[in-house]
Amino acid sequence: LVSALAFDPSANVRLRALEALYPHAEREVVRAGILAALPREQNPLVQLELIDFVATAQALDDDMRKRIVRHQAERSPRYRTIESAIDVPLAIRNLHSGGAIVLDCLTMWVANLVFAELSDDVILAHIDVLTETLVDAGRPVIVVTNEVGWGIVPADALSRRYRDSLGRCNQIVARASDRMFLMVCGQPFEIKNTSAPRKNRGV
Fold first, then answer.
1. 52 phi/psi in degrees, rounded to 5
2. Lower Cβ count inside 10 Å, N or C end of the chain?
3. Cβ contact 17:157 at 8 Å
4. In the predicted model, what is the mean pLDDT of residues 121-130?
């Protein structure tokens, strides 16, 4: 399970960053401030025949619809897109075997849960089920998320609740991951690697 934290919503930027990290992917999380595109020759993920791309965004307005269409067009035929706004664990369990799984992203998924007016306890239960599903997937999994807690404290209660919910989600998934990367300006910084000697590991 690879965990990836990313701010830049551009699909090709996010995919290229993930692809650069794929060779050692078991369960990894990639987290980032600003993602910048990496050279294509550094993207081993493009060598896979099939990647299940689980997308959590919803087309709730014209701008988001255009973004989704653009992101879909930027993905190669290797990416088999599965859209799931709420029940992501079920979508992952229903995937055909083979290849890797890219979940993009926890950021939108948690927003969907919050706007569905679910309680904090129910959201936490969804996060626990998703984490178990990712760990039991039986193939490489890359998870993308965003760090939204590095700025000022949001002015309204809903935004603060969302920030806290996503923060809890990121922590839970990151704890379950084998590796974790922070992407800054397109550069991956490994901050967790359960297989590396302790002296070479981050937190």
1. -85, 115
2. C
3. no
4. 97
Tell me the pLDDT tens digit for each residue of 93-107: 999 877 889 998 999
Q: Kindly report the length of the chain.
A: 203
Structure-block tokens of residue 14:
């996010």
Q: Are 134 and 2 in contact (CB under 8 A)?
A: no
Catalytic residue among 24, 71, 96, 126: 71
Decide which of 122 and 26 is more confident: 122
- Token pair recorded at residue 165: 């919910």
Residue 151 has pLDDT above 50, yes or no: yes
122, two tokens: 């129910």
Averaged pLDDT, 28-45: 41
Q: Provide the sign of the torsion angle of the four alpha carbons 111, 113, 114, 115, taken in this order.
A: positive
Is the confidence at residue 120, as pLDDT, over 60? yes
State how far the alpha carbon of 73 is from the alpha carbons of 37, 53, 67, 78, in Å: 17, 13, 10, 12
Specify the residue for token string 């290229």. 16
Active site residue 24: no
